[in-house]
Amino acid sequence: MQIGLDIGSTTIKIAVLDDAGTLLFSKYQRHYSQIAAKILELHKELMLKFPTLRKARLAISGSAGIGIAESCGLQFVQEVFAEKICTEKLNPQTDAVIELGGEDAKILFLGRHFDARMNDSCAGGTGAFIDQMASLLNVETTEMNALAQKATTSYTIASRCGVFAKSDIQPLLNQGAAKSDLVASIFHAVASQAVTGLAKGRSIEGRVLYLGGPLTFMSCLRDSFDKILQIKGVCPKNSLYYVAMGAAFCAEHDVEFADLPAKLETASKAHCFEHMPPLFQNQAEYDAFHKRHSQNAVTISTPENAGEAFIGIDSGSTTIKIAIMSPTGELLDSFYQSNKGNPVVAVRDYLTTFYEKYPQCHILAGAVTGYGEDLIRHAFGIDYGIVETMAHFYAAQHLEPDVDFILDIGGQDMKCLKIHNGAIDNIFLNEACSSGCGSFLQTFAEILGYTAEKFAKIGLFADMPVDLGSRCTVFMNSSVKQAQKDGASVANISAGLSISIVKNALYKVIRPGSKAAIGKHIVVQGGTFLNDCVLRAFEQEMGLEVVRPNIAGLMGAYGAALYAQRRYHNNQRPSSILKLADLASFQHTVKGVTCGLCNNHCHLTVNSFASGKKFISGNRCERPITHMAPKDDLNLYRQKLELLKNLPANEQPTRGVVGIPMGLNMYELLPFWQGLLQHLGFKVVTSPIEDKNIYRMGQNTIPSDTVCYPAKLMHGHIKWLLDHGVDHIFYPCMTYNICEQGTENCYNCPVVAYYPEVLHANMRELSKADFFFDYLGLLHKKVLVQKLYEMLHKAYSDITKEQIKKAVDAAFAAYDAFEAQVKERGQQIITLARQQHRPIIVMAGRPYHIDPKVNHSIDRLITTMGAALVSEDAVSSHVTSKDLNTDLHVLNQWTYHSRLYAAAKYVAENPDMHLIQLVSFGCGCDAITADECRRILEENGRIYTQIKIDDIDNLGAAKIRIRSLFSAAGLFELDNN
Length: 977
What we know:
This protein is an alpha/beta fold. The chain is built from 37 helices and 30 strands. It is globular.
């Protein structure tokens, strides 16, 4: 008899085979990190089922199996090898295997050129990721497949990890998106992650097997893989047990079953873990801590005897908070609970109960803030909206008038506000990742079977808090599970996670240069700081005492109520909030539609209410509401696109057609290369700018999941040209860019410089085309002419050097003319904005950030808020080389970087201008530019704002950042009213 154990990150599988390889017994179950205990249960079950069993060949496999195998002296078989052996034995014609496990994902390419691709320590796009999404949607994992079958539309969702996906899904939930559509979108995201993140450009074709729990139980997930790969994969019989069966096939040594329990008992006691000092040494220390933090309190009263009140609602990422405040600032009533994916129901139920219970209490005005601000305001007629950063500032200032630093940690959001002279001086917000926030702790509490409150209390007196570092949720999963295996108690894990949250906040968001840089009067708030472990860890890490209000979790709602009071005193009009009679007939329906009014084809969520009102979300311009084209007279991004689209075309070519992929540096150099090629007699065809399917067209050939999104798009652009019969494609490698005044050198970033090499190596279809990707430079005309001649003469022997020389001259003239137009348009926008007394936003990035697929129409979001918008190259030339380089703290040798630094310096000197830097995820170079631009602005008393962008087009977080900048800078009374 042969026995194989597959101990995965979340499950344990056993396969018992006879000597002929027939499966006699199998079982699949979750182990909840209690691996030794689960093996003992299986041992007892086997002894009952096979009472004569005394010894058998046994081997262990799986990502969590090697420790047990080594401790017990058992044979270990690497899981990839086990899966390969089983597949070749049972399905010998298989070309590739795709397996998704609990925290593991792998693709095996079988045959002569065997290769195995596995995920690293990130569990994004695996079973654990799907479990997290089910929890977020408040559905059982087993319900997800049935929901996906009802989907009618799809959304773009990140599956790099659970916390990124939460940042995409939560706004959609708050806007009313259907859970069925979200589940189908999650499945597509998982498949996309596996294909791009694991295949890394290698083609997946032929006979493909689907293995592992998620692909076994979820047919819609298999359908998503089929759709992306354009195949029909097979989920074989016993697909859950291929690794276990492979281990059994490889088992070589007999094991005495009577000795196994003792070995497991010894193994479970042989571990230790890295730990830190306890948060509290004893009860007396905790009591003193608790007493100190009880002193900063909002007076709590009751609405029973109140005649008038103001209401504030904080519709957060995962929770709904409501505060009823008296005209004198007392908290009369409050509400705090999970929104369960539908904040509308929670607010309706609360308002109905409040009106019925306290009919004498008249609500004078109300305000709403948070992720769900727009939806709640439209649903219930709330009088005012306020960006959440300002709501938290008003609440903190009310309790601590001298506050100079506010740290708010919510469910998925982290806000740090620096206050100077009673006004917000700077704002830090976490990026799309929500590690280090409340959902981080809540996720682990649920995994370990506790409520968030009980999980927090358990950690107070932990004797050895686990040292988990500061990593994101799915990376941390493995660390927590390992700590459990090493004997760490739940209390020590709870305390360790609390310390980890604080380290994330301090060293990844705030990044203070010193304790003094944070401030002297610090207020911490947000539901996460109700956890005494987190509060204590923050004070210990910084060596400071801070203020935590007694209503720390309600500060956003309380600040919104204060704002409603302020607005009411300025304009005492009757409140428009729905009354009890209105709520009795309240209805809310949601449907998804695709807007067809432009090439964006936005997925719209239409919320309809009984009053006939509608709230539309998901749109990136006002066209679905106004049915009019957006006005771009103050938007240089759109004007640059129009200039590129309207470049002169050669409709009577003498040498045929050449294609140019419209991405990366082509957004700047298209006038040059198109002018050159057309002068040589070619017709230039470019891939489309606004085709949303470009990314999917080429995603199977992307070799790196970590390269920036603009680079990933290049695969789709090349594929589009090839699919449209363009078999001569021009896309040269360029180490150097145009030399501009102000730089000590003029390098391109490595991705822009050499990505044609990547395309040539990974897109097999290019071997059938003439792909011109030689190394060219624009610094020396003579060298450029020679290199172009060598490149083009191979395919076009009639081209002469003299023709190329004239074409190069024409190309430089075309480029100079285009750049002059851009600067002229930019100056016109600046002049017009100043005449109209509008703020001017310099949206600084790289040339390709004007691509609507890359910036997701953030430019139009800004201009619809009333600001004018120009790009960095419209103002960078106003700063001289001498002025720029004497002030820089970095080596200025990159053309794009130099423009960013010059734009930051120019903005710092012009009070009516404000800089927003666009940064692509995965851009290592912008780690440098971001810090330097921040330094330039902040040393001049200006606010630095960064927006990170990738393939996800939900603009909820971007809108909060932009409104926060506008509010902090006092540009408008921007309360969304």
